[in-house]
Amino acid sequence: MNNDFSDEEKSGLYKAIFSRRDVRSHFTSKPIDEKILSQILHAAHHAPSVGFSQPWNFILIKDYEIRKKIKESFETEKMHSSKLVEEPRRTKYLSFKLEGILDSPLNICVTYDPSKFGPFVIGRSSIPETGLYSVCCAVQNLWLAARSEGVGVGWVSILSNNILKNLLELPEHVVPVAYLCLGYVSEFATKPDLESSGWLSRLKLQDVVYYEKWNQKENSSWNTIKELIKTNLDYA
Amino acid sequence: MNNDFSDEEKSGLYKAIFSRRDVRSHFTSKPIDEKILSQILHAAHHAPSVGFSQPWNFILIKDYEIRKKIKESFETEKMHSSKLVEEPRRTKYLSFKLEGILDSPLNICVTYDPSKFGPFVIGRSSIPETGLYSVCCAVQNLWLAARSEGVGVGWVSILSNNILKNLLELPEHVVPVAYLCLGYVSEFATKPDLESSGWLSRLKLQDVVYYEKWNQKENSSWNTIKELIKTNLDYA
Questions:
Q1: Is B64 touching A (CB cutoff 8 A)?
Q2: CB contact under 8 A, B38 and A80
Q3: Average pLDDT of B144-150?
Q4: Of A159, A230, A147, nearest in space to B50 by CA
Q5: Mutate to test the interface with A, among B137, B160, B201 (most CBs of A within 10 A)
Q6: Total structural domains within chain A
Q7: Residue B3, in any domain of the structure
Q8: CB of A171 within 8 Å of any CB in chain B?
Q9: Does residue A36 belong to the interface with chain B, where contact is any CB pair within 8 Å?
Q10: Is B60 within 8 Å of A1 when comparing Cβ atoms?
Q11: CATH number of the structural domain spanning residue B60
């Protein structure tokens, strides 16, 4: 098959991938254009799913009272987790802005429902977690589509899932996978916040690639790719 | 912020999202251009990760003996799982081609290493699964980048993770998240195989979206989006 993507189409995809950010600040209050929101949700819904089970749901949340309670859960969990880190990193951790629950005009909870099309789902018997994994692929589609539309997305994981399940009235068997904050932004940062602040560095690609088995960095059949992945990308 | 994506850039991203397929057939034996492979891996490595922990590794596998043993594990697991489904669906299930382990020129195992940058990872204390979720986002980036380069990707989840861990010599604490088969293809199917074969249908977007809480399909503040998501997309 000849390649069916033009250079500009390809670069659009890579631009979304490399300029996507976890957004916690710079949200504007402008509501998201509903046609664009619909497009972003379609993108999420077209993620791969194990056995074509499409096990996701998207709960759109604007209600201020619900979001306020979720924000409270964030504050409680952030305080708990700060006890797990020693000074001077604790003070630094506590100073980070890590969510935009009330600053963003829209929150979305993406959930996993294992009962959908079940109990037998092709490809889910040996590794049941693949159902959850499908939902994460949907989140990534949503995130990239939003980026291309100028909409920032932040994933808040400092939360009590029990409180979330209660507030959103999720059935017992449904798992909240991602709690997302969405909105137009005044800017997208050029680097992840935790990189800019010096908390952690981006690993080199060569540090995360192995050949044929775990931890194998040398293998004569892989010399070309080994050299190539040392090169930084223009986009990256 | 003005939107910084051109229409063609956006359509490149959506094209990748809507035309991506789980590929099990139509692989050609042509090796993947190594510059393109490097680009695809960079895309995966630029996924979001909880606390910027970048907890993924990519094990590139060409070795025939390893792949043959993984294929054997697939056969065993497929036979086991077929006992979970009743006739006439069992016969149909057994007739499906569900992997391209030996047909594709490259396999990649994407793993999760919770110890990376740990034990304290920002955002992972309340919901530890978010580490795994990050790895899934990397898989989706890889999948989309591959699609734009004419490279098909199939995710094989009918496998024993224990056998996989043994064969690839993964340490006890490392989790194999995705086992992927990659290669150029003679064509990308227009629909998922499990949809074309009538196994399952694609849900409508309106069936997976709720408003403010689980199962709520009616809410007066959401009338516009409710109408919009009933419309099918040109791309989809």
A1: no
A2: no
A3: 98
A4: A159
A5: B137
A6: 2
A7: no
A8: yes
A9: no
A10: no
A11: 3.40.109.10
Judgement on whether residues B225 and B162 belong to the same structural domain of the protein = no
Structural domain for B155, as ranges: 17-197
Tell me the CA distances in angstroms from B2 to A184, B47, B48, B123, one per residue in order.
10, 24, 23, 31
Q: Which two tokens stand for residue A54?
A: 């499409």
| Positive/negative CA dihedral, A21, A24, A26, A30 | positive
| Distance, CA of B191 to CA of B22 (rounded, Å) | 10
**A70 and A183 both lie in a single domain:** yes
Indicate if B53 and B102 belong to the same structural domain: yes
The torsion angles phi and psi of A118, rounded to 5 degrees, stand at: -90, -170
Say if residue A163 is in the same domain as residue A228: no
As given in the structure block, the two tokens for residue B215 are: 């199962």
Q: What is the ipTM of this complex?
A: 0.97
**Rounded to a whole number, what is the distance in Å from the CA of B208 to chain A's nearest CA?**
5
A216 in the same domain as A196: no
Let me know if residue A100 belongs to a domain. yes
Average pLDDT over residues B20-46: 96
pLDDT at B236 > cutoff 90: no
Q: Which H or E run includes A233?
A: none
- Chain A: residue whose CA lies nearest to B81: A125
Over the Cα atoms of chain B, what is R_g? Answer: 20
The stretch B13-21 carries a mean pLDDT of 98
Q: How far is B103 from chain A (nearest CA, A)?
A: 16
Chain A CB within 8 Å of residue B41 CB: yes
CB pairs under 8 A between A and B: 349
Q: Are residues A219 and A152 in the same domain?
A: no
Q: Which residues pair with A57 in a beta bridge?
A: A111
pLDDT at A223: 92
Distance CA A92, CA A174 (A): 35
CB neighbour burial string for B180-189, b if at least 16 within 10 angstroms, e if fewer: bbbbbbeeeb
> What is the greatest pairwise CA distance in chain B?
60
List of chain B residues whose C-beta atoms are within 8 Å of the C-beta of residue A8: 6, 8-9, 12
Q: Please tell me which residue of chain B has the smallest CA distance to A35.
A: B228
Residue A217: inside a domain: yes
Residue B28 C-beta-side C-alpha neighbours within 13 Å? 13
The answer to the question of residue B169 being in a domain is: yes
Q: Does one domain contain both A94 and A151?
A: yes
- Whether residues A98 and A130 share a domain: the answer is yes
